[in-house]
Design a protein that fits this description.
The chain contains 12 helices and 8 strands. The chain is of the alpha/beta class. The radius of gyration is 20 Å and the shape is globular. The model has no long low-confidence stretch (mean pLDDT about 95).
Length: about 300
């Protein structure tokens, strides 16, 4: 099982610790970073989650069947979006994304990771743009057409980018197709692996990790990486989540730890905290113990 980290500021001291390093160069907020290339790092591009674009171009915003915009805050209290969603059929936005991807192809990297590649929710998008494209598509099913839109986008990126592509998916193993237009079997032709973010601010309870991981491992046609939130949870909470994930045949664990602070705390606890060392040594999962043995070596 591999170990990775999602960093928002590259730290050369951390790169050698991990099998995989993700680095967002275009975030859901709209914030962009310059990509200089690094063979140890896989740049991340947020596609249709882009708050800045939705603020700048209101007609690009995805719209629900009953007319609500896919925006954060008071504009849409019902759906509670954390960021703004651009309609996946906005040609101008797609071209902007392809410009960014073309720049990435010119630099060294471990591949390319795509984030927010989906419709915002099941009842999106019903803008006039989508209605017109559906009517012209020749596809009879609205749901099948939404899948075509998302799959076509990933295929377009794959044609432009010769290195491996990976993809973040919503932690919804059963209804990705129905809710977001994401069909894992169709996307398997274009992606190397999936990343499933399973976030919690404590990880005091982990039964829900079992529920979701069992389903994803059974249903995904490509390898699955799990992203654990490593900012607010305490060290023991993250270790508890790791132990749960280690029970399943996933490809690896990626820590969402933008500055690398928590992973250093975990390594220190595994070396110096007597209680933590005892709990780990007595844990029945060999996979978990092996992961912690690797982390102890991080110095």
């Amino acid at each position: 099982m591999k170990l990775g980290i999602n960093l928002h500021r590259l730290d050369e001291n951390l790169l050698d610790w991990f099998d995989l390093v993700l680095f967002p160069i275009r975030e859901v907020t709209g914030r962009a970073k310059v990509w200089h290339g690094n063979l140890k790092v896989r740049p991340v591009i947020s596609c249709f989650g882009h708050t800045e674009a939705t603020m700048k171009f209101p007609d690009w915003v995805a719209v629900s069947e009953d007319g609500l915009p896919a925006l954060p805050g008071r504009r849409n209290l019902r759906d509670g979006f954390a960021w703004g969603w651009v309609c996946p059929n906005v040609k101008e936005h797609r071209l902007n994304l392809l410009d960014t991807i073309n720049q990435v192809t010119k630099s060294e990297g471990n591949g390319l990771h795509l984030d927010s590649v989906q419709f915002p929710e099941a009842n999106y998008c019903y803008c006039q743009r989508c209605k017109t494209k559906f009517a012209q598509s020749g596809i009879n099913s609205w749901q099948d057409w939404r899948v075509f839109v998302i799959t076509n986008w990933v295929e377009t990126v794959a044609e432009r980018f010769s290195k491996p592509i990976s993809l973040t998916v919503h932690p919804e193993p059963y209804f990705l197709r129905e809710r977001f237009g994401v069909d894992l079997r169709e996307l398997a032709n274009f992606v190397e692996w999936l990343l499933v973010p399973l976030y919690c601010i404590t990880y005091d309870l982990t039964y829900w990790l079992d529920t979701l991981l069992y389903a994803f491992v059974r249903l995904s046609p490509v390898p699955v990486f799990v992203e654990l939130y490593a900012v607010e949870p305490k060290t023991k909470g993250v270790l508890k989540a790791m132990a749960t994930v280690a029970k399943y045949p996933v490809a690896g664990i990626i820590f969402y730890d933008p500055r690398g602070k928590k992973v250093r705390e975990i390594a220190d606890a595994l070396r110096n905290d007597g209680e933590v060392k005892k709990l780990v040594s007595l844990h029945p999962s060999r996979n978990f113990r092996q992961l912690t043995e690797r982390i102890v070596e991080w110095k």
